[in-house]
Input
Amino acid sequence: MLLWHRSNRITIYALTAGIKISGEIYVELYLQNLLTGLGDGAVIAGVALGLVLAYQGSGVLNFAHGAMMMYSTYIYDELRDTGDFVFPISFFGSDRVNLLGTPEKGELASFWPAFLIALLMAAVLGLLIHLLVFRPLRGAPLLAKVVATVGVFILLQSLVLLRFGTSNETVRAILPTDTVTVLGTRIPQDRFWLAGIVILTALVLTILYKATTFGLATRAAAEEEKGATLLGFSPNVLAAGNWMLASVVAAVFGILAASLSNGVNTVNYTLLVVPALAGALVGALRSFWVTAATCLALGMVRSELSLLQIKSWWPDFARTGMRDVLPFIVIVAILFFRGRSLPTRASLVDVKLAFAPRPRNVFPATVILSGVALLGIFFFDRALRLSLYESLTSTIIVLSIVILTGFVGQVSLAQAVFAGIAGFILGKVALETGIPFPVSPIIGAIGATILGLIVGIPALRIRGIQLAVVTMALGVALGTILFTNRWFIGNTGALPIESPDLFGVNLAANVGTDFNRWEYGIMLLVVTALCALFVVNIRRSGTGLRFLAIRANERAAAACGVNGAAVKLQAFAFSSFLAGLGGAMMAYLRGQISGESFSVFASLALLAFAYLGGIGSVSGALVAGVIAPGGLAVALIAKGFSGDSIGTYANLVGGVGLILTAILNTDGIAGKVARDNQAKRQARSKQMKEEALPKAG
Output
C-alpha cells in the first residue's frame, strides 16, 4: 500500500512537472511568434507612414506605394552586390553605371554609400511620380487617380522584371540578428530594432508636422488648398516634399527589413499595401502615432495567425489566408461602422466624369464586329485564336466594370475575384454533382452574384476610394483563403473543368491535341455578344438613367425619388453576374482553374485597361479586351517581336499608357472617339438650324 501511494505521488509529480514544462514551452512558442511579428509590422508601418504622407501632401491614396518600396530595395541590393546603379532605361546603350567599385568574390560593397544612394534615388522617384503623374491629376476624377496609381504599380513592377530579373533576391541582414531573452523566449534583436525605428520615425514625423512651417503648411493645405494658397504656401511644393519624404520612409524600412523575408520579389512588398492601408485608416490618414502602433500590432497578430493555422485543431478550410483576412476586417470595421468619409482636400479645380454615351447603331455594329470575330475564329492560327479568346473573356469581365464603375461610379478592385469564384463553383458543381452545361456556369455566375451583393452592402455607407480600399482588401483575403486552399481546389493546386457539351456537341477549347477549337470560339462569341447587348440595353433603359443619376449626384438623385441603396445593389448584382460569366468562360478556355489568374493584381489590371479603353461604354470594353494582357493586340505585336519578354514589355507600355490616359484623356480611347463624334453631330445640327433660319424668315 505504501509503495502504491509512493508511485502515485511520483506519477502526480511527473505529470505536474510535464504539464508545467509543456505549458511553458507552449506559451514561449506563442510569445516568440508574437514578438517576431514586430518585424512584419515594422515593414507594414513603413508603407503605411508613406501612405499618410502622400495623402496629406496631395490627397492621393497610393496603391503603388509597396511597389515604390520594392523598387528602392532592388536598387540598394544591386549596389551592394555589384556596386552598380541600374538605370530604369538605357542611356547610350548601357543600363547601369558602377558607382561603388566591384566587390571581391563573396563580399559586398560598403553599406552606407549604397544605403544613401538608394534613399536619394527613392527621393527622386517620389519627386518624379508627383511631378509627372499626380501634379497633372490634381483636379482629375477619383478614378483617374486610382488608375494612375495602378499605372505606376505596373510600370515599376515591369521595370524590376526587365532590369533585375524574376528570381528572389536575398538581402544580407543589416541590423543585429543576435537573440535576446524576453520572458524566457529568445527573439532576434532586429525585430526590436525595427520596432524602435518605427516609433522614432513616427515621433520625428509628428514633430515635423506639428512644430515646423513645412508640416503646418501641409496640414493647412490638406484641410483647404485655397486657404493655404492665400497664406502664401504652394500646394505643389508641399506635395512634392511629402512625396519625396513618403518614398524615402518606405525605402528605409524596405531595405532594413529585406533580410527578414524569403527574399525580395515583385509580389511580397507590393501586397503590403493592403495591411498598410488598414493601419493608415485606423489613424484616419492623419496620425503617425496611431498608424505606426496599429501596424506593429497588425504584424504581431498576423504572425500569430500564421502559427495558429498550422495547428492540428485549426479548421482545415481556414489553413491559408487568415493573416490576410485581418486587414480586411479592420478596414471594413473602420470604414463601415465609423461611417465617416476619409479626409478630403478642397480642390482648386472642378472635375468631370467619364463619358458614358448612349449607344447608337447597335445592330450594324454587332453584325460587323461578330463577323470580324468569326473570321478570326476560323482563319487565325492557334496562337492568335488563343489571344482572341483571351480578349473576349476579358471583354466580358470588363463589361462588369463598365456597369459598376462606368455607369454607377462605384470603384471595385475585386472583379477578378468574382470571376474566380464563379470558375471554382463551376468546377466543383460539374465534378461533384454532375450538373451539365449550360446550367453549371449559370450556377457559378449566381454564386458570384451572391458574393457581389455581400460586397455591395458596405457600398451603402461608403463609396469612392473607400470602396476601392475595401474591395482590394477583400480581393487579397479571398484570393489567399480560397484560391490557394487545398481544401477548396485540391492537392494539385488547380481544379479541373469538365468539358461543356450541348446537344452532343463538345464545346471544349481543347480536346487532345486539338487546341483553341472553333466550337469553343463560337460559344464564347455568343456569350460575349449577349453580355454586350445586355449592357447596351441597361444603358438605354430607365435603369441606366438611374445608374448615371447616382454617379453624378447621389443626393440629388434621392431628391428625385431614386432609391440609392437599391440601385447600388442592383449594379453590384449585374456586375458580379457578368464577371462570373467571364470567369466561367475563362475556366472552359484553360480546362482547369487556379488562383493565379484571379488575384488582386488581375483586378487592378482589368480596371486599368477598362479605363484605358473607355470605362463608360461597351465599345470601351471591346477595346480594353483587345489591349489587355494576353489579348489580341499583344499577340499581333509579338508576331514581329523576338524575345521572351514581350509580356513584360507589353505591361511596361500598358503602365505608361494608363498614366498618360489618366492625365490626358479621362474618357479613354473609345470614350474620346464617342465624345468627338457627339461634338461633331451637335455642331452639324447647330449649323443646319442656323442655315434654316433665313429660309424660314
